[in-house]
Amino acid sequence: MPKTDRVLTCYRIGDPNGAHPIYDAEGARLYPGRWNTHASPVIYTSEHYSTAMLEKLVHANLVMPANQHSIEITIPNSTSYEIFQTAGHPGWDSRNETICKTFAQDWYQQRRSALLIVPSIPARLERNFLINPVHPDAKGITHGLPEPVWWDERLYSRR
């Protein structure tokens, strides 16, 4: 697997007073997403703050959870990564998530890299970084303190 040639930054949004820390894979274990199963809990992050906000909005169903904070995550130079190649997986973006779950579960179980770089469904030109917390390279990934997210109500209110 290739290694990053520079320090990368990504973002995650959650509730710092919630049942699980923001930087944690337990929510993904309990409630699997497109890229994981109960047996492959990953930490979902977004390459950009705005993409993290959009991903949160997509999953909020027009009711934004209270007390949302973001953390900035730092991925050090030389962290291993893999990029999901959409051209090699027709139908990856369909409602049926089997292609994504199968690919990412194999990646997770084989510990091929610390990061799996995947496209964002709501922002196709943006990327999400899935962190495999059991990969040895993941130990070098750090994050800052939670900062409040200020939502513009026009993003999620209907008039």
Tell me what the structure shows:
- The chain is of the alpha+beta class.
- It has a domain of 102 residues.
- It is built from three helices and eight strands, in the order βαβαββαββββ.
- The strands form two sheets. Strands 1, 3, 7 and 8 form a four-stranded antiparallel sheet that branches. Strands 2-6-5-4 form a four-stranded mixed sheet.
- β4, α3 and β5 form a beta-alpha-beta unit.
- The longest helix has 13 residues.
- The radius of gyration is 15 Å and the shape is globular.
Chain-averaged pLDDT: 94
Order of helix and strand elements from N to C terminus:
EHEHEEHEEEE
Total E-strand runs? 8
Class from secondary-structure proportions? alpha+beta
Characterize the biggest β-sheet: 4 strands, antiparallel
Q: What proportion of the residues is helical, as a percent range?
A: 10-25%
The low-confidence runs, each spanning 5 or more residues with pLDDT under 50, are none
What's the end-to-end separation, in Å? 49 Å
What is the quaternary state of this protein? single chain
Note the overall shape. Answer: globular
If helices are DSSP runs of H or I spanning 4 or more residues, what is the number of helices? 3
